[in-house]
């Protein structure tokens, strides 16, 4: 019966591994996703928390290998920022064509699509090494475009790169840039280098820098009272604290229009509990490696199916072991 016992141990180990991959709402390293009275987001008045089936598409952790691959990709048509977006007449430019980014304005309908370059493949891994982004006026327009997939909601911006996405994934539950923002008080160059040191691309780092400067100019006295305090207040409404609310009012709209990507727009939970209507459950980071890239629904369905089979095998083997000691 030694073989049966070994098979049982294998089944138990495999079941545990599958559960770790399927049950997205169980964080790793003791970190917990944002919570408002037990829900990962703030429900509207008299609303219900999204079901676990819906929220399971929002991972609470990401594999380091996946993050590393995203960091290594080259953004072929990176969007750059050469001015303060909170001042008049500031435009973003396409780094390839050098033209201003115009046309589709940031709204609840526009989306940012990404397409991997399958010509420039890593000879060893077969993974794409570069990609391009494009703003589409709607999800339907994106779905009809050959080769493109949804990388985040809202128009593409300075933070739409996979490198910036990797930062959001890696620092999923951490407030970003507090130390860098403090540096901006006396040395904006050092603050820019600080944001780049976190891992942001140059354009995204500049966007974060201008955001912190603008928030400081309008919210400093308010925010001093909330340093080190939770971003959300008490349930059931779980409103932002006064500092975060001030930042949202004075800096949020322009930051989103300029940056494009944010954690919640990319299907990544953050340390802040947002309104459920502001979370997007149908977008997930995509792996550039063709051998491991699958849609989230397919991957989860396969893992659940596999977990069911292995669980049944484990139960059967447990019976045999108990029956034949």
How do the helices and strands line up, and which of them pair or pack?
Blueprint: H1 2-22, H2 52-55, H3 64-72, E1 74-75, E2 79-81, E3 92-94, E4 111-116, E5 130-136, H4 139-143, E6 149-153, H5 162-170, H6 178-183, H7 188-198, H8 202-223, H9 242-250, H10 252-259, H11 296-323
Parallel strand pairs: 1-5
Antiparallel strand pairs: 2-3, 4-5, 4-6
Helix pairs in contact: 1-11, 3-5, 7-8, 8-9, 8-10
Describe this structure in words.
This protein is of the alpha+beta class and 325 residues long. It folds into 2 domains: 1-27 and 299-325; 63-284, no CATH class. The protein contains 11 helices and 6 strands. A 4-stranded mixed sheet has the order 1-5-4-6. A two-stranded antiparallel sheet has the order 2-3. Mean pLDDT is 72; it is low at 1-30, 95-106 and 291-325. Keywords: Signal. Residues 1-19 form the signal peptide.
């Amino acid at each position: 019966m030694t073989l049966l016992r070994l098979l049982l141990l294998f089944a138990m180990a495999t079941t545990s591994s599958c559960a770790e991959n399927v049950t997205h709402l169980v964080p790793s390293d003791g970190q917990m996703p944002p919570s408002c009275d037990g829900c990962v987001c703030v429900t509207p008045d008299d609303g219900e928390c999204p079901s676990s089936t819906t929220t399971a598409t929002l991972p609470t952790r990401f594999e380091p290998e996946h993050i590393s691959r995203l960091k290594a990709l080259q953004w072929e048509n990176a969007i750059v920022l050469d001015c303060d977006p909170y001042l008049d007449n500031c435009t973003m430019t396409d780094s390839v064509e050098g033209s201003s980014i115009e046309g589709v304005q940031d709204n609840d309908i526009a989306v940012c699509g990404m397409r991997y370059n399958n010509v420039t493949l890593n000879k060893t891994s077969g993974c794409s090494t570069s990609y391009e982004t494009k703003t589409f006026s709607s999800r339907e327009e994106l779905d009809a475009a050959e080769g493109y997939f949804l990388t985040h909601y809202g128009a593409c911006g300075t933070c739409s790169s996979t490198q910036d996405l990797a930062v959001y994934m890696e620092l999923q539950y951490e407030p970003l840039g507090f130390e860098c923002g403090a540096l901006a008080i006396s040395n904006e160059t050092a603050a820019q280098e600080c944001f780049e040191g976190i891992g942001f691309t140059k354009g995204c780092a500049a966007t974060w820098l201008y955001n912190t400067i603008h928030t400081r100019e309008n919210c400093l006295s308010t925010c001093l009272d909330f340093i080190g305090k939770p971003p959300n207040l008490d349930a059931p409404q779980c409103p932002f604290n006064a500092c975060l609310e001030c930042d949202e009012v004075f800096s949020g709209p322009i930051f989103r229009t300029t940056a494009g990507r944010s954690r919640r727009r990319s299907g990544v939970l953050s340390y802040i509990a947002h309104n459920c209507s502001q979370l997007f459950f149908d977008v997930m980071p995509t792996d550039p490696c063709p051998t491991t890239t699958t849609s989230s629904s397919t991957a989860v369905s396969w893992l659940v199916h596999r977990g069911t089979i292995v669980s049944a095998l484990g139960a059967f083997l447990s019976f045999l072991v108990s029956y034949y000691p």
